[in-house]
Every structure is written in C-alpha cells, then in structure tokens.
Amino acid sequence: MIRGTTTWIIVGIASALALGFIFWANNNFYQEYLKEVQSPVPLLLPRHDRAWIEIDFGENKKRVFEGAVGGHVYRLPSVLESIVKEAGISLRPPRSRKWTVYSNNKTVPKSLSEITVAAGDRYLLRLER
Questions:
Q1: Of 63, 44, 37, 42, which Cα lies nearest the Cα of 52?
Q2: Are residues 22 and 63 in the same domain?
C-alpha cells in the first residue's frame, strides 16, 4: 500500500510541476506578444516623410534618389542641384535630346522651375529625343 501511495504522490508532484511549467511558458509568451504589439517593427511602416526622384538616362541606365523632405516643399531645380552635387552626375542633355518630367506616369505640364517636391512625391526625369 505504501508503494501505491508513493506512486500517486510522485504523479501528483510531477503533474503540479508540469502545470506550473505550462503557466510559466504561457506568461512568457504573453509578455513577448505584448512587446511586439506595443512596438511594431518600424520597417513595416510607410515612410511618408520622403520624396523620390528617378533619373532615366536611357539605355537601361537609371538612378533613383530618395531624401527626407519633412514638412518642407522644395522646387525641383534646387533638388536636382543637390542631386548633381552629391552624386557627381551631369544632367546636361546631349544634342537633340531633352529631359521630360513625369509624375504618376503622366507628363508634368509645368516648367521645371514651377514643379515642387513635397513629402510622398515621386518624379521621373527621362532623357528623350
């Protein structure tokens, strides 16, 4: 009889330890879950404080520039001056070619000096004949 009682005591202690481990693991999982919910990964959030300028030189030669704009609005010529200065590229078109500015796959009808660049804008400058 003592042997049967000892077995049940061991089973009871093992069950209590297993139950305690399950509660401990569940609590740790919940704490990790709360950390993830309270601080989402910043890479998954859209970046609305930036603008993008893509320059298509033709012949599959393209350069894309991305920059912080914040709440400011800039004129496209000053943005292009910064790109030329920082990237060390030339935007002088060869003879019989000209730059055309696109936004959302549509030609921008304004003159270059009237175009503004603000947060979220995407422009394409394409060298065309």
A1: 63
A2: no
